[in-house]
């Protein structure tokens, strides 16, 4: 199977559409890793578009849970709090039902999918090597895919020595996802990148040839920014898209 792997769309329809257009000939299955809504101005449109994608597997993210009103918003920073309250008001019944149907962990095609980390599927930001041992111990497949940090990252565990490493991938890089080396791969964020590159980030996974490729694509950031401001969402949420942070 050829999967489009993407995460953290955050209601950014222009970024999502650009990813789907760029990847359209390269996938027949869809794996979405959470945070469909929150921050961005088009939560319902993004949900509708996601549900149209082929062989969809999707999991829930912390912002999706927040939009459903299932957590205490005091754990969010002030901007995220305002944006979540906006999203809760904007959410259509159909979008709400879709988000409510999503689980926290999925195992499919020999991989494990989570939003945050294997240890804490919704909330843990997996960023540093000291987090690796406990997390590699919490899933049984050779490959785990995650999101949540909005920063592309690859954690690897070598066979035999079990030595672990973490490194940022380069754009267009293709990794072999053979069973010997266990990996936790984060392709970055579609709708709000935070690695200094404002382009939408996504990945392509071929489970037959066992290859994972990191991709970026430009989108019309100005359109999304105008919508954020027009919706009355915090302007800082529009500004940060310019810088990819
Ligand atoms: Zn997110």
Descriptive notes:
The protein is α/β, with parallel strands linked by helices and 245 residues long. 29% of the residues lie in helices and 22% in strands. It has eight helices and twelve strands. α7 (221-230) runs antiparallel to α8 (235-243). 44% of the residues are buried. Zinc ion is lined by residues 8, 10, 35, 61, 63, 148, 150.
Structural topology:
Blueprint: E1 2-6, H1 13-23, E2 29-32, H2 43-51, E3 56-58, H3 62-67, H4 78-90, H5 93-100, E4 106-108, E5 111-113, H6 132-136, E6 143-146, E7 153-157, E8 164-167, E9 174-176, E10 182-186, E11 200-206, E12 211-217, H7 221-230, H8 235-243
Parallel strand pairs: 1-2, 2-3, 5-6, 6-10
Antiparallel strand pairs: 1-11, 4-5, 7-8, 7-10, 9-12, 11-12
Helix pairs in contact: 7-8
């Amino acid at each position: 199977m050829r999967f489009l792997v993407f995460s953290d769309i955050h209601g950014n329809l222009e970024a999502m559409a650009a990813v789907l257009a760029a990847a359209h000939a390269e996938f027949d299955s869809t794996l979405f890793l959470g945070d469909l809504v929150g921050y961005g101005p088009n939560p319902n449109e993004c949900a509708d578009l996601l549900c149209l994608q082929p062989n969809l597997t999707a999991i829930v993210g912390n912002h999706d849970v927040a939009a459903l009103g299932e957590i205490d918003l005091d754990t969010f920073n002030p901007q995220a709090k305002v944006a979540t309250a906006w999203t809760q008001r904007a959410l259509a019944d159909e979008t709400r039902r879709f988000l409510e149907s999503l689980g926290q962990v999925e195992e499919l095609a020999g991989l494990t999918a989570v939003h945050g980390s294997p240890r804490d599927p919704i909330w843990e930001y997996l960023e540093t090597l000291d987090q690796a041992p406990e997390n590699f111990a919490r899933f049984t497949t050779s490959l785990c895919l995650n999101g949540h940090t909005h920063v592309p990252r690859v954690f690897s565990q070598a066979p035999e020595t079990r030595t672990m490493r973490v490194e940022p991938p380069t754009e267009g890089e293709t990794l072999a996802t053979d069973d010997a080396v266990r990996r936790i791969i984060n392709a970055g964020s579609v709708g709000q990148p935070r690695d200094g590159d404002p382009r939408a980030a996504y990945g392509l996974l071929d489970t037959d040839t066992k290859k994972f490729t990191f991709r970026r694509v430009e989108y019309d950031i100005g359109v999304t920014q105008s919508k954020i401001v027009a919706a009355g969402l915090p302007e800082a949420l529009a500004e940060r898209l310019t810088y990819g942070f």
